[in-house]
Each structure stands twice: as structure tokens, then as C-alpha cells.
Amino acid sequence: MIMMNNLNSLPLPEDNQIEVKIAPPGLRIGACALNILFSIIALIPLFATMVVLIIKNSEQFKGINENNPEAVFSALSSVFAHPVFLLSILVYLVYGIWQIVIMSKHGQSLGKRLLKIKVIKSNGDEAGFLGTVLLREVVYNIAVSIIVALLVMIVSALVSETALEVLSNLISWLPNLICLVMLFNVKRDRRTLQDYVADTVVVKLPD
């Protein structure tokens, strides 16, 4: 059990606190899956528009060669500067900004909100933009990307190209696998690597 503070300050009277439970693995995995699904849906207009415009302007793309930069620019402009393509980018940007806003304000992505789980600080405070977005998402993913890239570079000097492809995929998935295992560690409040970076915990809100 964790006491979550309603007013984002400590200490608080008991009537301004809510008793919550640690979110179970199933809900956290489900929220992650929903977020991936929503991101794919938000990207569909972008990719669909790109494919349609490329097919529509296929004649321009057939005439492209490296000695004719004007033709290259014209062909690319027919797709990437098209109003419908720009509108589809705007749709995805709005979705992304909306996710950031609700994560900062409520400690919940859209997937977490639907499944009634929430990110809070380990002391019960609201995580806010710093904890939910900046540390938990941006800093964590940058750090993981750097570490994975360094590990791949080290491995590439030790193994063959065939083995490198397999090992690179395994290394890139390793942080996710570690986080998945950590979800089942009850003694550590099911905190993942992201939670330790941001000093957060994910809880199940009362029904």
C-alpha cells in the first residue's frame, strides 16, 4: 500500500491522502500495448498519405537521378510539401502533445488512464512533467540508446557480422526484458528501470 497525496505536498492530513495499491504487471503491460496501438493509429494517416502521394506522382519519381537535383526536389516536394501530408503530420503532433500534457498533469498516458493506473513519486507526490515525461521517458530513453549503442560497438569488434546482427537485436531488447522481469518483483514495488531513474512508482487507482 502507498499513500498518494492529493495536494502534491508533504505532510498532509489523512483526509487529503488516498490509499492505493501497486499496479499489477498485467495492467502496466496492457497500458504499454494500448499506447503502442494508439501511436500506430495516429501514424496511419501519415503513412497512408505518403503512399498515395508517391503512387499519384510516380512519374516524377521515375525521372529522378543524381545528376538532376531539381527533379529530386520536385518529386520530394510533391509528397512532403503537400497540404494533406502536412495535415497528417499535424494530427500526429497533436496526439503526441496531448499525451505529454495528460502525462504531466495526471501522471497517466492514454493507455494508463484507460486502465486506471498512474505514475507517482515514491513518496506519494505527483510526478509531474519532470518525473513522468522528462526523466521517465526522455532521459531514460536517451541513456538506454547510448548504452545500447556502446554495447553494440564493443560486440562488433568481437564477433562476426552474422552473429552481430543477432546480438544487436538481443542487446536492443535487453532493457525491455529487464523491465519486464522487474515488474514481477513485489519486494521492490514492481519498479522498473524507468521508475528508478525518475524515482517513481506506478499505482492502481481506486475504482
Automatic annotation (TrEMBL):
A Pfam entry, by short name: RDD
Membrane protein topology class: Multi-pass membrane protein
Keywords for this protein: Cell membrane, Membrane, Transmembrane, Transmembrane helix
Listed transmembrane segments: 31-55, 75-98, 138-160, 166-186
Cellular component GO terms, alphabetical: plasma membrane
Record-annotated RDD domain positions: 23-198
Cellular compartments annotated: Cell membrane
Principal location: membrane
The keyword Transmembrane appears for this protein: yes
Superkingdom assignment: Bacteria
PANTHER family assigned: MEMBRANE PROTEIN (PTHR36115:SF4), PROLINE-RICH ANTIGEN HOMOLOG-RELATED (PTHR36115)
Protein name, UniProt field: RDD family protein
Organism, scientific name: Neisseria wadsworthii 9715
Upper taxonomic lineage: Bacteria, Pseudomonadati, Pseudomonadota, Betaproteobacteria, Neisseriales
